[in-house]
Amino acid sequence: MDATRFGIEEEFLLLDASALVPLSGSGIVERVKGPAPGGGMITSEYLTCQFECATDPVRTLAEAGEQLGGMRRMLASLAPENAIVAATGAPLAQWGAPLISASKHYDDVQSLLGQLTRQHAVNGLHVHVEVFGDEERVRALRRVRAWLPVLLALSANSPFTYGVASGLASWRSVLIRRLPVSWAPPAFCDADEYHRTVEQLVTVGLLPSRGSTSWAVRLSERFDTVEVRVADAQLRVDDALLLTSLMRAIVVSVDLPDAAPPAAELDAALWLAARHGMDARLFTPDGEIEDAWTATERMLEGIRDALDQLGDAAFVDEHLGRIRSEGTGSERQLRAYESGGAQALGDLYRDW
Questions:
Q1: What count of other Cβ atoms lies within 10 Å of the Cβ of residue 170?
Q2: CA 117 to CA 131: how far, in whole Å?
Q3: Cα distance between the two ends of the chain
Q4: What confidence score (pLDDT) does residue 107 get?
């Protein structure tokens, strides 16, 4: 198997170092002045308190990790003295209405969302995997769709809202769920159905453009890629690389069964994953029920050959073991906050 190209997009929040609430980062991106040294690009995001770091197309986790680490270091160096650049799915708390970044596209999004924007300081990890041909991309989308709850459970990293524990492992996912055309996509039978559906959603006004779907996995409108968007932003670079390696392996594992979980069961499983993280009990493609770690092991069985051929198997095994031991990002955040409040949580954000 050739080393399929992929790209990673990480979103970050600029937070006040004491209260851990979002701050406007206007002007920071302008100081980057083009591509980041070592590769990748840092850009503004929907809100002025957000940034996105996107790698160049790469073929190995080592290349991706070098670029992600370099861009994280650059953002940290550009942040004001009283601020932290945090890779968390949602902030501890938010005061007031956020400022929207200047962009015609973002103006259209704000017009569509109305007051939903007030709580939309959310960060995700988006992974593009190169797949040539629309029909092949739709088949890959179906493969990823079946494993979205497992990927969400593993990636849960947003346990707070309004300054307290939300009771959910991924508060970001609940906020995303309020958006039009969000969470799991339908099990499209072919590319024509996919493109026809998106075009209809734009026509009726549910989307400002074809590239604005908020599905947890979608076809990119700009690249020859399947874009997996289910994960919260990750605390550490290795956390992001673990999720990336799993997503890429699912996309390229053409021998995986073509499972199409019913929409109701998939929706329920995603909610349970958002609520409980790796303590969730999930539906299998056959309608049975299993715990999230058993589901993870079953997923690994299906993609093991791809992980071996891509050279990612040892990395995945090591870092899944670390997640078992240390917990997901949400569990680590909760422990830090319980032990030392905002100061300990801020220290965790800096330790990437």
A1: 32
A2: 33
A3: 31
A4: 61
Residue 18 has pLDDT above 70, yes or no: yes
Q: Give which of 350, 345, 324, 326 is closest to 334, Cα–Cα.
A: 345
Confidence of residue 189 (pLDDT cuts 50, 70, 90): very high
What is residue 270's three-state secondary structure?
helix
Tracing tokens 């050739």 back to the chain, one arrives at: 2
Q: Are 323 and 279 in contact (CB under 8 A)?
A: no
Q: Which residues contact 96 (CB under 8 A, 6 or more apart)?
A: none
Contacts of 89 (CB under 8 A, 6+ apart): 122, 123, 124, 156, 157, 158, 170, 171, 172, 173, 232, 233, 329
Tens of pLDDT along 312-347?
999 999 999 999 999 999 999 999 999 999 999 999
For residue 283, report the phi and psi dihedrals to the nearest 5 degrees.
-80, 140
Residue 108 pLDDT level (bands cut at 50, 70, 90): low
Residues 19-27 have a mean pLDDT of 86
| Residues 6 or more apart whose Cβ sits within 8 Å of residue 114 | none
Structure confidence at residue 34 as a pLDDT band (50, 70, 90) = confident
Segments of 144-294 assigned E as strands: 160-161, 164-165, 182-183, 214-215, 217-219, 225-232, 281-283, 289-291
Distance CA 74, CA 36 (A): 8
Q: Is 117 or 16 the better-scoring residue by pLDDT?
A: 16
Name the phi and psi angles at 115, rounded to 5.
-75, -5
HEC profile of 326-342: HCCHHHHHHHHHHHHHH
Residue with tokens 């938010």: 94
214-215 and 182-183 strand pairing:
parallel
Structure tokens of 249? 């392996």
